[in-house]
């Protein structure tokens, strides 16, 4: 990157506070920025990181400009924008543009069934395998080692990265990205224990991935036992996420790595799950719910609200439990001490009561 602060401000529709002619050569995070770099201030919690920050220019939200001291304003050039993070991402794409999409067509080293229908502008890379009666839309990229099973349907502008596996009859929408090693449509984990052994329950459903979904590397989505497993429009699944058979994931969910959702569970729209979250089977999660990382949800929850812990409970309650955990050893000692003191007092009371009864008996005898 070779630009002035003023030029960068023009690019992101920002206003310059400081020297607009300062030269900027690269982009860096706030804590590691140098004099020739531009960075961004994401939130109020980062204000103290301005101490010792060497960045030449800092993107900042207009709403936070008044929080910046004159000392900081004299040490840096600021670019005031509506959204500092968005502006930073815009500049980042200018410095590190994506590699241009190659046009290779249908590689002669791919295995493509004669019955497959492939749209214009689609690339099928070497060693990809396209099965019978597959339909692939326009401008798709099927990378090396990807397997598209018989009867699959893929919309326009969709990308399957290397070693993605689509089992037969999977439906993929438009503008979907499936990262390397993901497996979509494997049999659901359905068995009956009968006559002393596990007997497989046939998994005859499909998986339907709606438009604008992104699926992380090595994620797995099982086909339904009867009906479909559904991943709703705009949903983002991180690496190593497991979605079991007959789950219905709503629109615009964000599910972080190593999370698992057991069979026949469902989510509403705009649900968020932190890493390693777990959801039991047949659980319904309302729209707008957030599930903290590591949480284990075993029951239905209504729309809205944040849940955490194992088992999951409202986040305020979960945090109180977490905060009390370090105090448990000392509390245990206190309880034991109180138990001993209580036992001593009970014994003393019993002795006093026994003594009083003896005095009463002697008085009655006299």
Give structural notes:
- It is a single chain.
- With 366 residues, this protein is of the alpha/beta class.
- Helix content is 20%, strand content 27%.
- The protein has five helices and 39 strands.
- The strands form seven sheets. It has an eleven-stranded mixed β-sheet with strand order 10-13-16-19-24-27-30-33-36-38-39, covered by helices on one side. It has a ten-stranded parallel β-sheet with strand order 8-11-14-17-20-25-28-31-34-37, with no helix packed on it.
- It is flat and about 120 Å long.
- It starts with a strand and ends with a helix.
- The mean pLDDT is 94.
Q: What's the short story on this structure?
A:
With 366 residues, this protein is of the alpha/beta class.
Task: Fill in the keyword field for this structure.
366 residues, alpha/beta, 5 helices, 39 strands
Helix content: 10-25%
Report the principal-axis shape: flat
Mean pLDDT: 94
Radius of gyration: 31 Å
Class by alpha and beta content: alpha/beta
Task: Report the β-strand fraction as a percent range.
Answer: 25-35%
Provide the spatial order of strands within the biggest beta sheet.
Answer: 10-13-16-19-24-27-30-33-36-38-39
Biggest sheet overview: 11 strands, mixed
Low-confidence stretches: none
Q: Ends: how far apart?
A: 111 Å
* Total number of helices: 5
Number of strands: 39
Q: What is this structure's SSE topology?
A:
Elements: E1 3-4, H1 5-11, E2 15-17, E3 23-24, E4 26-27, E5 37-40, E6 57-61, H2 70-75, E7 77-81, H3 84-95, E8 111-112, E9 117-118, E10 123-124, E11 129-130, E12 135-136, E13 141-142, E14 147-148, E15 153-154, E16 159-160, E17 165-166, E18 171-172, E19 177-178, E20 183-186, E21 191-194, E22 197-200, E23 207-209, E24 214-215, E25 220-222, E26 229-231, E27 236-237, E28 242-243, E29 248-249, E30 254-255, E31 260-261, E32 266-267, E33 272-273, E34 278-279, E35 284-285, E36 290-291, E37 296-297, E38 306-308, E39 313-314, H4 315-324, H5 328-365
């Amino acid at each position: 990157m070779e630009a002035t602060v003023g030029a960068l401000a023009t690019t992101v529709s920002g206003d310059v506070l400081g020297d607009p002619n300062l030269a900027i050569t690269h982009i860096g995070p706030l804590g590691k920025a140098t004099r020739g770099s531009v960075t961004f201030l994401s939130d109020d919690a980062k204000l103290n990181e301005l101490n010792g920050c060497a960045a030449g220019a800092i993107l900042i939200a207009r709403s936070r400009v008044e929080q910046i001291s004159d000392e900081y304003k004299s040490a840096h050039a600021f670019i005031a924008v509506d959204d500092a993070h968005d502006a930073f991402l815009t500049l980042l794409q200018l410095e590190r543009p994506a590699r241009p999409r190659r046009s290779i067509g249908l590689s002669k080293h791919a295995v493509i069934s004669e019955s497959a229908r492939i749209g214009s502008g689609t690339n099928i890379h070497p060693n990809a395998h396209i099965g019978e009666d597959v339909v692939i839309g326009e401008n798709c990229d099927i990378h090396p080692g990807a397997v598209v099973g018989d009867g699959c349907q893929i919309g326009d502008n969709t990308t399957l990265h290397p070693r993605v596996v689509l089992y037969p009859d999977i439906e993929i929408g438009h503008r979907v990205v499936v990262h390397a090693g993901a497996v979509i449509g494997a049999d659901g984990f359905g068995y009956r224990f009968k006559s002393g052994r596990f007997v497989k329950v046939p998994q005859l459903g499909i998986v339907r991935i709606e438009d604008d979904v992104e699926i992380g590397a090595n994620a797995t989505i099982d086909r339904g036992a009867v009906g479909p497993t559904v991943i709703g429009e705009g949903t983002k699944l991180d690496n190593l996420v497991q979605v079991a058979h007959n789950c219905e994931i709503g629109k615009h969910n964000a599910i972080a790595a190593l999370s698992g959702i057991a069979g026949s569970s469902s989510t509403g729209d705009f649900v968020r799950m932190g890493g390693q979250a777990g959801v039991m089977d047949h659980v319904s999660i309302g729209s707008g719910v957030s599930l903290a990382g590591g949480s284990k949800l075993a029951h239905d929850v209504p729309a809205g609200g944040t849940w955490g812990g194992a088992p999951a409970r409202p986040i305020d309650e979960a945090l109180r439990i977490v905060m009390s955990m370090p105090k448990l050893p000392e509390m245990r000692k206190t309880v034991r001490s109180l138990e001993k003191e209580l036992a001593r007092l009970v014994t003393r009371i019993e002795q006093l009561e026994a003594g009083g009864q003896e005095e009463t008996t002697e008085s009655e005898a006299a």
